[in-house]
Each structure stands twice: as C-alpha cells, then as structure tokens.
Task: structure prediction
Amino acid sequence: MPIRKVCVANRGEIAVRVIRTLREMGIRSVAVFSDADRRELHVRAADEAYRIGPAAPGESYLRGDVIIATAVAAGCDAVHPGYGFLSENAAFAGAVEEAGLAFIGPTAATIAQAGDKIQARVVMKAAGVPVIPGSDSPEPDVASAKTIADAIGYPVALKAVGGGGGKGIRIVHEAAELKSAFTRASSEAETAFGNGAVYVEKFLVRPRHIEIQVLSDTHGHHFHFGERECSIQRRHQKLLEEAPSPTVDATLRAAMGAAAVKAARAVNYRGAGTVEFLLDQSGEFYFLEMNTRIQVEHPVTELCYGIDLVRQQVRVAEGRELKFVQDDLQPVGHAIEARLTAEDPGGGFLPQTGTVRAVRMPEGPGVRIDSNLYPGQEITLFYDPMIGKVIVHGRDREHAIARLERALTEMRLVGIMTCAPLLRAVLKDDAYRRGDVDTGYLERFVEEVDWQALPEVNDLPAELPAVLTAVLYAHQQKGASKAVVADRAARSEWLTAARAEMMR
Amino acid sequence: MPIRKVCVANRGEIAVRVIRTLREMGIRSVAVFSDADRRELHVRAADEAYRIGPAAPGESYLRGDVIIATAVAAGCDAVHPGYGFLSENAAFAGAVEEAGLAFIGPTAATIAQAGDKIQARVVMKAAGVPVIPGSDSPEPDVASAKTIADAIGYPVALKAVGGGGGKGIRIVHEAAELKSAFTRASSEAETAFGNGAVYVEKFLVRPRHIEIQVLSDTHGHHFHFGERECSIQRRHQKLLEEAPSPTVDATLRAAMGAAAVKAARAVNYRGAGTVEFLLDQSGEFYFLEMNTRIQVEHPVTELCYGIDLVRQQVRVAEGRELKFVQDDLQPVGHAIEARLTAEDPGGGFLPQTGTVRAVRMPEGPGVRIDSNLYPGQEITLFYDPMIGKVIVHGRDREHAIARLERALTEMRLVGIMTCAPLLRAVLKDDAYRRGDVDTGYLERFVEEVDWQALPEVNDLPAELPAVLTAVLYAHQQKGASKAVVADRAARSEWLTAARAEMMR
Amino acid sequence: MKYYAKVGAREFECTMSEDDGALFVEVDQTRYRVDLAHIEASASYTLLVDGRSYEFALHEDEDGIELSGGAGLFRVCVEDARTHAARAMVSAAGGPAGPRLVKAAMPGIVRELLVEDGAVVTKGQPLLILEAMKMQNEIRADGPGTVTRVHVKAGATVVKGEKLLELESPPSP
Amino acid sequence: MKYYAKVGAREFECTMSEDDGALFVEVDQTRYRVDLAHIEASASYTLLVDGRSYEFALHEDEDGIELSGGAGLFRVCVEDARTHAARAMVSAAGGPAGPRLVKAAMPGIVRELLVEDGAVVTKGQPLLILEAMKMQNEIRADGPGTVTRVHVKAGATVVKGEKLLELESPPSP
Result:
C-alpha cells in the first residue's frame, strides 16, 4: 500500500533527514513542533507543520496522543518516529497502528521484546546468538546473584532490567563487593526506572562496541549491511562512528552479520534496526542490545553501501519486498561520522546554549552534512545537545580521516561552543589512527591526554594569530570612525576605477 | 618527486575545490587574490594567500608573471591552474616549468597542439579519432571553402581557427549563403581573435554534447572515466551536466572511451583532460575539441567513479604511475551537476550583482556542494557569474533528478538572483526527464516554453503565500514596536516557565 | 482589518482577523489560519497557512515588497483600506496608474537607445542595449505601454538601479 | 604604537607600525606584516600574517576579547601603552591583580556548594554542583587560588552568565 503522507514525530537533524527522503520519494511530509521550535528547519523543510505543545518534551514531542491526533487530522497515512523521543515506545507504536496509520518501524511486540533486556537475552540465546554469560532472569537476591557471578567469574556487571543505553550499570570486581553493590544497584534501579530488578552479566575488559545494521521486510527477508565501529563514546554517548570497523575483517563481518540476521529473525523484525555487540579482545562477540529504530550513525552505512536507509524503511512500511542478495552487499571505501554536540569538551562537557550567529558547513568531495543548523538558531537546554553531523567517505580509512580533518578545519560555526576541538584532537591521536580503541578510549583520552595543549598552527605559535587579531581589532576600534571611512573610500575608488576599466 | 606546496592560480569555487584536496593530501596551499577578493573563501581556506593586483583579471589572475613570482617567493614547488584564466595558456605552462615549478596539467606543447583547432583536427584524424568532415587546413578563399562544403553537403559551419568554446562560428544552410558568410566570418574572426583564418565543418543537426574524461600519467598510461552528458547549454555555457549520459550504453561508452584514449595518446597527454565529442542522431560521434584542464563538471565523474580527479592530477604531476585497470572503471549510479550562476534567467540572463545576505546550501544524503558562497560575499561583474554547484548522486537517473529537485528546493540564497528557477523548471520538463535533449534544447526551452508560469505550490496558488507574507509583514511593520515587545514578553514567559519545569 | 495586495495585474482583498490568539486572513471567500515568523540572521520569513509551510526572503523598497521563495520571485504592493480608497478616488478621477520605471539591473554603458519618448512598445520589445563585461545586453519591455520619459543618453555610464526610462501601461480595456 | 596583550599567563608586547600602506606588528623581536579584514555577515575576521591565513570569530565583553578559530578558543586582554603603564603602577603599589569571576556556563540550580569563602583551592578542584536537565555538573576551578567571595547559595536558580563566586590568584612566585 503506497504511503502518500507521513507525519515525522521528531525534531532536529533527524526530522530534517527524514523529510529529505520523503521529498525525494514524492511523499508529503508533516512536521510537528513545540513552542521553542516554530523557526526550526524541520518546520520549514516540511510541506506542513503543526504545533503540538510547549517546549518541554514531556508536553510536546513525548505526547504520543497529540502527535497521533495531529497526524490523523492532517490526513497522514504513516508516522516516522526518528530516533529518541517515542521511537522505541511500544505503546506509541501500537497506538499509531490502532489509529489506522502505518508505523515506520517494527511492531509494538518487537519493540517491547527488544526493550526488555532480560527477555531479549533469553530470546537471543535461544536463537543461537552469542550473549554475554550471565543471568537468564532477574536475580531475586544476593545469594542467587553470587552463584551466577562465581560461575562466570569476576569482574561482573549488575544491570537494571529496566535500564538500557548504558544506564543503571554497576561493576563488581570481586566477590566481596557483591553484596553491597547488589543492594545499591537494586535501590538505584527502583528509583531510576521504577523497577528494582537487576541481573548479572560478565563484565568485558576494554571491549569494542560494534553494531550491525539490519533491514527486514514483511515477507520474511532479513539482510545485514555490515558493521559500524562505535567504540569512541563517553558515558555511552557516541562521538565518532565509522564503517567498516578497522578490526573487523570479511570473515568476522559475515559471522556477526549472520548473528544479527538471526537476532532480527528471532524477534520477527520489520524495517531498519541495529544489533549492538561487544567485541572482546580475544575476538569473541556478544549480543548487547537491539535498537529498534534508525540510529544517529546510520549515514556511515549509507555511504559504504550506497543505500538510503530511510527510503528502505518507507518501502518496507509500504509492504514491499526487499530484493537484495546478501553476498552482493559489500562495503565500498570507508566512512566516518563526527557528531557535533553543543558541549564544552574542555569544561566537563557542560551543555552550551546560545544563538548560532553564523554557520558555514564543510563542502566538497566526500563530505555529507546532516544538520538543522541555521543562522539565528537558538540552542536551548530543552533538547539533545547534538546539533549536527559531519560525515565523510573516502577511499580507505586514512583517506577518510584526512577528509574529516579537512572538513572540520573548514567548518565555521559562530556563537556556540561545540565538541569540534576534541574531535580534531582525537583524529590526530596515534591510538585512534591505528584503530586501537575500545569503549573506554575516549574517557581515558579526555582525562589523561593534554589534548587542549596548543600546537604550532600554520608555522606560528597558536596564540600569536589570536593576539595579533585582538590587537588589530582593538587598534581598529580606536580609530574606527576614520578607518571605516577611509576603507570605504578606498574600496569605492578601486571599484570605480576597475569598473571603468572593465567597461571599456 | 613529492609535491609539498602548491600555488593555486585561480579564484572562486575551483580554487577552494583544489585547496580542499591539497589539504587532504597534507600539501600546503598558496592562494593568490585580487583587490576584490581579499575576503573570498579561497583566501581563507588556503594556508597562505598573497595579493597579485587589482580586481580586473587582466591585472591579476591573468598576470602569469606576477603569479609565478609569487609562487616562487612563497617556496611553492608546483602551480595548479584550475579552469579558465591561464589554465589553457601554453606560454604560462611553459613559464611555470622554466621557473622550476611543476605545472599541474599537460605540457605547453600539448596545450598548444590542442588549442589550435585545425591542428587538433589533423592530429586526431591521423590518430584514427573520428572528426567532423571538413577542412584539413584553413580555407584561403571562398572557392576552396565552397569545394569542401559542396563535397560534405550543407548545412556547414564556418569556424574561426583561433576560436573555441563555441565562439566564432557561423552556420551556412545552402551554397548561395556561403560567399557573404565567408567574408563576414573572416572579418569577425580577424576582429575577435586577431586571426582571420576560417575553416569548414559539416554542421550537425541537433547533436548531443558528450565528453569523455581522460587521465594520463607520464609513463605512457592513458585511461578514460566514461562520459558526461553536457547537452544542456546556452550559448555554449553548460548549465546541467550528468554522468552517465542517458543515451550512451556500455558499447558506445567503450567506443567513445577508446577514441578519447587515442586522442590523449596522440597529443602525449599528461594529467586530467577532457575529449569533447558531438554525438549525432544516428549514433555517430565526432571529435569536437580537447580541453587540457580540469572541467567545471568534473564532480559528476568523481561521484560515479569514486575518484578524486584533483588528487590524481597532483599524483601524476609527482610522476607517479597510474595503476588502474580500464575494465574495472565502471560508473556506479547516476550523478547530475547544477551550476548556480548569478544571472536572471527570466530577464535575458543579465548578470546579477549584489551582496549575499544569507546562504544555506542543501545537505543530506547524496548531495555534494562545491561553492565559495558565504554571507557577506560581494558578487561583482569582474568575474564569471558561476557562484557554485550543487551536485547529486543517486541510484539511477530518476533518483538523481528527484534528489536534485529536493536539494534545489532546500537551498536558501538571499540577496542575489540565480538561475535556480530555470534549473528547477528544466528538471520538471518531460523532454529532459526522458533524456531527449540536444545542444539546442535549452535555448528552445527558454524561448518556447512558458517556464515561468506559476504552478500551484503546496496546494495553494503560487502567488497566495507571497501575498499573505507581504500582507502580514506590512501589518507587523505597522504595529512593529508593540508587536516586538509583546513577542519578546511571550517568548520570555514560556522560556522561564519551561525552564523552571525542566529544572525540577 | 482590510489590506489590498497587488501582484502583477491581480489584486487580492485580504481581511485580517484574530481569534483566540491566532491570526486569520480571508481572501476570495476562503479563510486561512496564518502564522508568520522572522529569522533575522537567516534573512528569512517562515509562513504557515493552515499548516502548509512556506519560506520567503523579503526585501522592501519604494516600489513595494519583493519576495523570493520556492515558487519564484514576487513583487507585491500592499495598501491598507484607507490608502487604497484614496488611490481609487484618484484613479476614478482619471488620474494615471503611474508609470513603470525601467531600471538598470547592472552597471554598464548605454550602447544604443532603441526607442524614444512617446514610442508605443509591445511586451518583450527591446528598449535599449546595455553593455557590461564586453557583453551587450538587450533591455526589454516587461509589458505593453508607451514610453513617457527617457532618462539616459547613448554612451552614458549607469550604475545598478539607475532609472533608464519610464513606461506607461495602456488603459485597461 | 604599542599594545600589551595578555593570553592566560603570557603577555605579548606588540609594536605597530605602518610602511607604504601596509601594517606591521613587532612581537618578540620579530616583525610581521599583517592584514585584518572583517566579514560582518559571516561574523568573522580574516587575518594574514606574512601571507599565512587565519580566521577568527571575535566577541568582546567586559572581560576582554574572546577569539575562536581553528586552534581553539583564546581570551585576550589588550591594553594600549598608557593604560598598561597606569595599571602597572597600581600593581607595583601592591594592588590586587583582581579576582577571577566564576560564572554559570548554563542556567541551572545550585545543588551543592563545595567550598566557602576563604577556601584555598587547586586547579580542577570542584567548587559547586550545578544541575540542569536533571544532570549534575561539577564546576571546577580554572587554576589555583583563594575563594574571596561566594555569590550564590545552595538551591538558588541561576541564569547563564550569572556570577557564582570569585577566586583570587596566588601571588606570582
């Protein structure tokens, strides 16, 4: 059933990203916006846009009822949830379908199954997907937790059943620590997630975070589009993602891909999804969790596989059959995504607010920008600090790194501080360049490396150009009125002279 | 011999384009600028920048002597000429090499050979490249021209030996017109090019302009990277270029490619070059001319072949050997380039001047921007009206067209009128969408089609949103002072309320 | 509150009203809910018309309001009811609708004048040749009319926006 | 003409001169040919130093000039020779170099004060906890010093840029 009009239940770069593909497909797009977002790009990029409430997400972008009513009133036949907000909310997905709209994503049952961390473990284990050794059900007490922990060996992680995305985790290095850790983990989980149940997993030392992109249709076909290396993260917030991973070869890719396809089949998956794995130092990989939505980092897969994943999501929601041949799906070149977040990486990652005064994004060969930045944009604390992404594609990893460095050098973003200086420092780091990273790399880098130390820039000490600019600026301000007049006169003089010359 | 520092003897988007690749290769870039260009992006993107003279090109960008002296003083080891200006000036290429710098392009001898239209015809014919039937040397008088014209059949074209790029051409439809046409063509050529010599060629009816990208090293290897379809042109200024051509299949591509490689070998080519052909309606193709530089439209080839042609130019200039396998070079997907020119397509293509007040270029999947646009940029009449390019890559031609339409819809360029409305109209034209175009298509389209007729836009008559905006603007201006205050107060109120909510 | 907006030959009567904080405009018996917001640093206006989203750059000068957006370039003259009524009286009294100014779209040299005062011209007829960058550009009439004034002479150098001549529209049939 | 520019702990003495229309600045016995141009609509300054190209965004407030560019963020305080001499006299007379203000980088609620008036702190030591978006953020000392004033109380709501406390640098050795 062809989709003709889609409500994009999101904001920011992902809403704009989805609207772009809808426009290319000739499908009308309907944006929703909060009071803070009337001027945002997703409102201006869509064919239609409707207000759904005040700035706070709980009163707008998380109001599934209001969004569904808006979509129905606007005559939509489908809803695209983007990522974040309601994208992995099973009740929302169910309500969308009950309202007679297609949900561009998996069924509510699949979302619920993948969202319950313990249930997901059990399902995956049964399907033959390797899971991290540990509990098969919540541990009722310290004793049962200890039995498991002793069996699999320390260190272990105590995880909240209701957690996810790295939240609600406590590491236990030896048996003696287990009792107090269990008590605290359980009470924290109760407070944070309203569910005190915890379970035990083997804690992997310095693992890599590698995830596999899957795509499934409603005709029982499941495909994978290789891996993304997402180990460069801080407090489970990814900062730099790439495809392929520097440590995954064709054999491992095929093995992890096959496991991901098994995972997708096990939960009767539909649309685009991601199976996250931890890859340990010995080369073993374990199921971590399944994300039942489009990921922030999906563009690196798109660049290496020449595919538009949002387009495929829509086609699957239309009930079309995917006609890929798995063996033909091979990555070409190398892609890296850098997330731009409005955070001060040199000041404890404090979120930054302000007005974007000027912006010029990188252009040229091999550069893709997914952003919703515009001059005059207000960056507030209401929403996620990620304000855009710079994604590059190159012949190989070295080329892609050089291209990303070039692109970040070229970017001009005035008015708001971002993590760009940290990104540039990481790209210069030897360990990163060697691909020698794990999920703890970035926190160690930020803490242990003097990455803000100023190098020589363009042959001069780094402060000198800033000093000269400040002194010349101060000098010009002093003589501002007469200097401006003189400058204008001089410009006008050569313009007149040159114009007379030209028109001869 | 590795190149470490390159002087980019150009301005505008191509200078920025070249600097981007140099930076990715770790090569220092030196920009040159006229008085009009101190603030231009190529000056700010380069590692170093030096003034070379007043705004008029004859006193700056065409001053080969000043540019070479600047390059030498800055310690460069090579010069990249870009396109236009001195890029096909054999004397400049020779002087660069005499100054001990590498010229990133072919030798002076090759440039001279390709620049002489008659000599090029003779060389190509001898090499077995099909040339348009016609003279093998300048025609001394009407009688000799008539002998040739009668032999090849009318219509014929009288062309100036010193012409090129479509200049100095006169069409003769029957024998009776030949005498007066010859006299006028000769005297015009004398005036325009300082050389009254003319020659005769068969005039092809509604041909396509198809060109082949070649790449040659200094070790005798020549490769081609397929064709670009460049038939959408007006007065020999191309506006939309694509790869592959909708009328070229793999067999024709191989044949034209082989001819182009023969052409490159015949002039002992070095670096990136383009062999232009006319393809007539019967499927025969004829050598038109060889461009001994990077072309404006090179990105469509880069996107389909996954190659950086500027990078390859530099590598060839370093003396490296090209290690491609011709049969492996196959186009993937479809690419289209739209040139943005500061011209009023609805007003006789009058060049537009002014200040760029705001600019937001398209982003997202499959979009590449090569521009030097920035807020505050002055568009003057000193230089070429082309101010940027929007290039897209898609799965197939239909996808690429949809993507380009989406990208142009998304673009915001305030303060300067461009040809974008014409581009958008062409993309909607049935003949264009069918690929049914020839070199006369665009002029006919502009003259004969009511392309400015306003369609319904987003379900409303096209004028209505403009009328409503104007009325609301006028209304706001009337009550401006109190409205602004009220708006600020309202915004401030919800910000405060929402913030308090959020911080709970 | 009533406004009259003229685009080319069409005139729109727009009645504005407010209801529960929202703004409505009635045009040709249809009532639209509208919302206009300015993004100053982007030199842009965003408009919602019953939810449909449009964006324009806007430039006001003595000739009216010029808007450029997705569908092209529009020049709109807006009058409030009082001004419109006053002008209607002048028109009814036989006053001229006012001549149309032809201005130089670019700096250049007037190479040739192709019409003179009093000439009756048709839409698209060349009026004069303006040379710039060694290219000769024909300046054509944007519609039929009578040349009521010529401001420049052959050989004159003009700057961008300079008045070249004035055209008066033929009386409406 | 002499200027004194301070970046962090370093001070640069800059002597400006003009020669044949070009501007030169001498710093540390090296003379640089400089050219600064402003691109207002891009909120940007382009600088050439002996041909080397740099670009900065610039923001001036009461604390000095903040420049952000490729190499990072710099805060520069510029004084002309007269002001510098006057301030040097005050310093020599035992006057304080002036306390450093610690400001709120974001709006939030002060959850906890970790230091009090008179406390001697080291670089990086947490001073207070500021909560926003349900995240607790430690505000740390940007260098060693003594807390000379605390402007806020635990539980207070602060706006961006609001003064939190003041730190005085230890006397230079």
Remarks:
- Chain D touches chain B through 20 residues (CB under 8 Å).
- The mean pLDDT of chain D is 86.
- Chain D has two domains: 2-82, 96-168.
- Chain D has one helix and 16 strands.
